[in-house]
TrEMBL record:
<dbReference type="Pfam" id="PF13205">
    <property type="entry name" value="Big_5"/>
</dbReference>
<protein>
    <submittedName>
        <fullName>S41 family peptidase</fullName>
    </submittedName>
</protein>
<dbReference type="Pfam" id="PF03572">
    <property type="entry name" value="Peptidase_S41"/>
</dbReference>
<comment type="similarity">
    <text>Belongs to the peptidase S41A family.</text>
</comment>
<keyword id="KW-0378">Hydrolase</keyword>
<feature type="domain" description="PDZ">
    <location>
        <begin position="67"/>
        <end position="142"/>
    </location>
</feature>
<keyword id="KW-0645">Protease</keyword>
<dbReference type="InterPro" id="IPR036034">
    <property type="entry name" value="PDZ_sf"/>
</dbReference>
<keyword id="KW-0720">Serine protease</keyword>
<dbReference type="InterPro" id="IPR001478">
    <property type="entry name" value="PDZ"/>
</dbReference>
<dbReference type="InterPro" id="IPR005151">
    <property type="entry name" value="Tail-specific_protease"/>
</dbReference>
<keyword id="KW-0732">Signal</keyword>
<dbReference type="InterPro" id="IPR029045">
    <property type="entry name" value="ClpP/crotonase-like_dom_sf"/>
</dbReference>
<dbReference type="InterPro" id="IPR004447">
    <property type="entry name" value="Peptidase_S41A"/>
</dbReference>
<feature type="signal peptide">
    <location>
        <begin position="1"/>
        <end position="27"/>
    </location>
</feature>
<dbReference type="InterPro" id="IPR032812">
    <property type="entry name" value="SbsA_Ig"/>
</dbReference>
<dbReference type="Pfam" id="PF13180">
    <property type="entry name" value="PDZ_2"/>
</dbReference>
Amino acid sequence: MIKRRMQPLLVLLTLLFVMMPFTQVSAAEPLDKIRQLIQQYYVDKVPEHILLKETGKEIVEGLDPHSVYMTKQEYEAFINGIEKRIVGIGVVLEESDKGVKVISVIKDGPAFQSGLLSGDVITEVDGVSLRGKSIQAAIPLIGGEENTKVTLTIVREDSILITKVIARAEIHLPTVEAEMLGGNIGYIRLNSFATNSAKEMAEAVKTLGSADGFILDIRNNGGGYLTAAQEIAGFFPGVKQAFQIREKNKTPAIYPSVNQEMKIKGPVSLLINEYSASASEMLAVNLKEQKAAKIYGQTSYGKGTAQSMFAFQDGSVLKLTTARFYSPKGIAVDKVGVTPNVVTATNEEVKASHYDQLLLKFAGYSPFPTMENVKTTKTFTIRMSKDMDWSQLGKRAIQLIELGGEEAEVSIAVKDGRSVEVTPISPLISGKEYLLVVHPQWKDKSEVMMRKGIYLKVVVE
């Protein structure tokens, strides 16, 4: 019999890191215990010929891609980047047939400064091939001591081979980032489902408490802890359940969300992409099912499995897929992903969701035709059908909001009795789109208030 200090703790694979309390297995010889653990806990039945392989790594390689047997050294290298401090080049990785694929690059890190891009496949590290290697095996090769250099061979989508020499450095990755977009729409980026994510999320929601709507961005978020997914679900009013877990030979169990005192108020847009995985998909499928958010982006990664960690006396660790997760009502995620409500082009998710949030806010306003090919130095003229009392014209009567960005500061000048001119203080940004909003805050000479506000999209050439 296997003596365990505690029940295995289910966690979700994060493409950046895995770290949690894990089961300590008292065993002098890990190989036999690996076989026993797989037979007892692995989510699917395993053929005998796989269990009879001669090493732990060979056995686990016959399982799914997310089950990994790590030596003590590999495990120590793997957890060096947990949550607060990373020494390396600053990339989030996943397995690939040719090596390891970069799914996101940490802003301002060494990889970012060297020009690595999402989608790049690292095929060699210092001349060592990564073909067929796991993430856990690749990390010690790519990572290393601060201020040392590593040479990467990279393949881009167009099959061009690139060689880059990158100096490793200490990288700080925030779990939660927040800012207020133009039109008073709160934007929160959740980079991982980590230990402190709920605490940081609460601080972000509090900071943006006056927002009229929220955009929660989990693009490129590779996952994290199961408990963090429960906690994040608790920020959404009415979301009482977090997910459904199905373990081997057990009745499916529905896990509750962890209620949060601080709630996200108003309409919510959730952004996902093909690199939103695991805990991100757990949150996305749940919010979509319960209609707690409108999903924007592209179909997510499709990792609907959960892993348990088992540590052996020799310091090695078995990360084993022990369950699959579903939405509370049973919608599958594994190998299918989560389909957004609104499919957008890549990198258009924030702009599209921000635009829709603003239209919700200005639902009673009249839309005007889009202005195309607008110059960066454009001055807008707004002409009314009657003579107006411009003395009551306030600074907030007209707004120019960059879609996906902040509000552009403008000056408003009276041109004549029926017209005003709106001039951006700084040039507009080429290639960007804006929303010009005229609020119903004006009266004509007869003291009759403007009936409706108006808005129109502005596309800068």
